[in-house]
C-alpha cells in the first residue's frame, strides 16, 4: 500500500480515522515555538493535517507559516476555522514534489506516517527544503508498533544513524513534555542542515 497516496489519506479523513490528531497544538512544539524570538522565520509544517500547530504558530506571530498536506479535506476545514491564515500558505501538495526553502520545518506525526522505506527520501527532501543552517524540530515515536502502520515507529539508534548522514543532530532525547497518552513513547529532536 502506498501510504503517501492522496486517496488513502482522504479516506482516513472522510472516515474520521485520525487518531494522530490530538485536537490542539502539541505541547513540545508549543513550548519550542514560544521560546523563539525571531518570528519572521519561514516555517513549513508538512503532513500537517488539521493544522493545530500552524494555527498556533500563526497566532503567535509566525506570519510566514505554511501548512502542507496531501489531503484537501483538512486544509479546507483549517481555512474555514482560521480565516485570518493566508490561503496561499495552505499547500495541497505531495511533500516529495513540493518546492520551497524554509528556515524551520516542524515535524509532528508526518515522519511516522511514512513507510520506513521512504525515510531516506524524506531526509533528502528535507535537506533541499531547508536553508543552510535551517532546522527540523519536532517529535518522533521512540517505540516500535505491533501492528502494521501507519504509524511506523522506531528507536533512537536508528534515527541517529539515518539523520546523521544528512544533518547535524543538535538534540535527540526522550521528550519530557509529551501529552499523557504518548508519555514515554516520544523523542524530541532538533536537526540542523549541514
Account of the 3D structure:
This protein is α/β, with parallel strands linked by helices and 194 residues long. It has two domains: 59 residues, no CATH class; 96 residues, 3-Layer(aba) Sandwich (Rossmann fold), CATH 3.40.50.150. Helix content is 28%, strand content 24%. The protein contains six helices and seven strands; from the N terminus they run ααβαβαββαβαββ. A seven-stranded mixed beta sheet has the order 3-2-1-4-5-7-6, sandwiched between helices. β4, α5 and β5 form a beta-alpha-beta unit.
The order of strands across the largest sheet is 3-2-1-4-5-7-6
Task: Bin the strand percentage.
Answer: 15-25%
Beta-strand segment tally: 7
Shape: globular
Q: What is the highest CATH level, the class of the largest domain? A: Alpha Beta
What fold name goes in the CATH topology slot of the largest domain?
A: Rossmann fold
Q: What can be said about the biggest beta sheet?
A: 7 strands, mixed
Low-confidence segments, given as residue ranges, are none
GO molecular function: S-adenosylmethionine-dependent methyltransferase activity
Keywords: Methyltransferase, Phosphoprotein, S-adenosyl-L-methionine, Transferase
InterPro entries: SAM-dependent_MTases_sf, TPMT
Protein name: SAM-dependent methyltransferase
